[in-house]
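Handoff note, outgoing to incoming analyst
You'll be picking up this chain. Sequence as last confirmed:
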Amino acid sequence: MRSFKFTLDRKSLEVFYFSFIRPILECVDVVWDNLTQSEEDDLEKIQLESARIICGATRLVSINNLYSETGIEPLSIRRRTHRLILFYKMYHGLAPRYLTSLIPNQVGNITSYNLRNSSNLRNILCRSQLLSFLPSTINSWNSLTDEVRSAPSLNSFKSLLSRGRKDVPLFYYEGDRQTCVYHARLRTPCSNLNEHLFTKIIVESPLCTCGDIEVTFHFLLSCPLYMGSRFELYNQLFAYRPLTVPLLLFGSPLLTDASNSYIFKCVYNYLRHTRRFHS
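Most recent structure output, in case you need it:
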């Protein structure tokens, strides 16, 4: 993927990762998901590097910002989801008999007391902290709400598990690759702005050439060095005033995709005209 970082667009790189790399990382993961933390981290590094390539972020980006930018879930969460999906099939008789027979009794069936966790499944005691499929998945299953566990179908169960997940907006994929990368680096933030570099102890000063601290707001909306380019930006986005950093970087959920796409196009023009990030 590295060799295609600036030749393929973001969507193509995303499809490349989802189609050819992530399936290898997740092959039969319900079986071997009893990893040590070190092994989990080594596996996750592959996905993190792929995510950086997809959006164009640098190694300065935080993991949380990277996952938020790309909409990619950590592999540990996806493995947990895969285990729960298989367990749902076992619990509701959608799996072979040799799997469904492994389901333990509910707590309410082995005690006469009216307990709050009576609908939970009995835990399987293990000496090792690296739990195999059944003990770890029962723990995960018991942590789900009754609404999720009693989902009427497998599709609805999957939908409830993924509830709250946000997809990447369509307008993030538009524009030429180079400028799209600069924009994503401002969003993350891990750009070449002096304040971004200063927080990572890469440069000695966060000041812009004009003398003010070179934060994202300063570069986009106040730096006197780019007044001509900014004047054009303000004219193009007159209907969307007042202009704010969140609007210019993330768009607005109150606007249509077409409007957000137009805003991004104008910001891309600004980035090209200022030549701040061109080597």
